[in-house]
Structure formats: structure tokens, C-alpha cells
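Minimal example, chain plus iron/sulfur cluster.
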Amino acid sequence: MMIITAILTSLMTPLLVVSAFNTSPPQSSSSVANRVKSVNYFISRECNYKCKFCFHTQKNTNKLGIGNAKLGLQLLQHSGTEKINFAGGEPFLNPQVLGELCQFAHSECGMAVSIISNGSLIKSEWMDRYGQYVDILGVSVDSFDPATNALIGRGTGDTTKNQHVSRVLKVRELCAQHGILFKMNTVVCSLNHREDMNEYVTTLDPYRWKAFQCLILQGENAGGVNDLNDARELQVTREEFDAFIQCHSDQSALIPEPNTVMQNSYLLLDEELRFLDCSENGKIPSQSILEVGVERALSQAGFDDDMFQKRGGIFEWTRDRGGNNDSILK
Ligand code: SF4
């Protein structure tokens, strides 16, 4: 932490910030730049939902101050990051921090900006102010049936109202108003794997729809003494997952991600800007990029960049700010 203090108090330029960590790079810079093109930053573990399969559970309520979070973005930018995805927890529980980080990442770091949210706290006022800095807004939608959503842990459990779905429809509308690309994420589990979502998905018309096979990670959702969740009963077999994909094969936006593809192919930074190594079925944090720089922390990340490339981790992620997103919406 002494390094951070020195950087902040001396108001070093971004170039000097980077050089502060260049004493002994464990990897070549081109390799680092290729590996950090797209990074997911969980700004906090706090969430207002309690999804039973969640594998980034609310084990603490820590988050960085805005200055350190921005410094982290600068370090990533100078290492080659082109796209940042803000996630959580629920990132809209900290709307001001989220908004400022979106603005900074877009305007100061030149990054494409994406957010993954559960959709329940997105306000039109936030979109009016910060929507211009966001390229992609992804919402998690695991079911269009209120009873299933309640069983999963999304929403209030009031099955007389399809609250989660009406919120998602509202977010879809806000994205259209602000020219933001709308994305959907679905975790396929034992509670929804037989659901036919085609009608709603066609209405929502996402530009990407990711379907993930429910993943178990030690220390998070494996039912162990240190786990807040036990999602073992929610697991689906590869055959069940493939059947869900088959049922929705007419959806051109659909991107299937079974466990074998997703586990190590995302570069994840936790609330303290530490990469999370999921290669041993758990989440082992690296040292923070604020303490040792991106290159050294990356060497501890357990990240499979071949799988990242194979799963199509590089794609068209910048919206057309001229207002025409039709070419990449379809
Ligand atoms: S909305 Fe996301 S972060 Fe929150 S509990 Fe559900 S899966 Fe976890």
C-alpha cells in the first residue's frame, strides 16, 4: 500500500504509474496486453438478491475508494485493457461509484464499458446521467416465471407479480432510449433447464445472450464450511445443459458456456483488484494490482487465454455513439 500512497500523493502521470511496476516483468508486454484486453471488475460483493447458485457471494462488504479504483483502471489501461466489465454483487447498489467509474473508464481510459446487473436497481435518472458512457448493459435473467425466480432467490418471492421480468423489460427500454447494447445472462440450473424462454427472448431481442451451466466453486457455493451457498442440487448435467441450448437454437444471439468453457476463461478482479484464480475449482486471489502491478498479479491469475479466444472473448464491444447500433444488434 506504500506504493499506492506514493503514487497518489505525488500525482504521478499515468506513464510513471505504469513504470512504477516495471522492475521485473514476469511476462512480455505484448503477452500481457493480449491477456488483459477484457477484464471483469467485481466492485463489491454486496447484493440485494440471494440467488442460490451465486458463486460470488456476499462474504464481505469491502470496496475500494474511488481514487484507488480509478488508479486500478489506469493500470489496466496501460497494460492493454480495452474493455472493462463492472459486476458484483449488484453494482447498482453503489450507483455513484459505478457511474463515476463508467465515466472515467470511457472518457479517461478510452475503454469500452460494460455492466452486468440483476436489473432491479437501475433508475432512469442514472441512465440520463451516465448512460452515455456505457456500451453494453447486461442483465441476468434466469427465468420468466415468477415462481421459478422466487425459488432461485431473485426478487421478493411474491409470485403474484412478475417483478423481475417487468424490471428487465424496463431496462431493455432504457437501453434502447440511450443507444446501449442490451445483453442477457442466464444460468441454466435444475430449476429452469426445462423452461422454453423463446417468446420472451425474442421480445427482448438481446444483442448477446449468454447461457452458463451452473458452476460450483469451493469457498462460495459448494456447501462447505466456508461457503455461504450450497448449489450442488442446482447443478445440471452437460446433457441437460445441451438440451436447453437445443431448445433455444433459433436464437441467433445465444452463446452457450458449459463449465469447461467458462471456468478459467474470464479475467476476474475482486473488490480489492486481485485476480481470482478459479483453476482449482475455487477462487484464489492474487496480489492486488495496486500493490504489485498488472503483470505480476496476472501471473497468479490461472487464466486460460486460449479458452478466452476460443469462447469468442473478443467481439464487437463498442456501441455506435452516432446512434446506429443496428449493424451489431443483429
Ligand atoms: S444477483 Fe448476481 S450477485 Fe446477486 S445473488 Fe444473484 S447471482 Fe449473486
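The beta strands are 38-42, 83-87, 112-117, 136-140, 181-188, 208-213, 254-257, 268-269, 274-277, 284-288. The CA atoms of residues 150 and 157 lie 4 Å apart.
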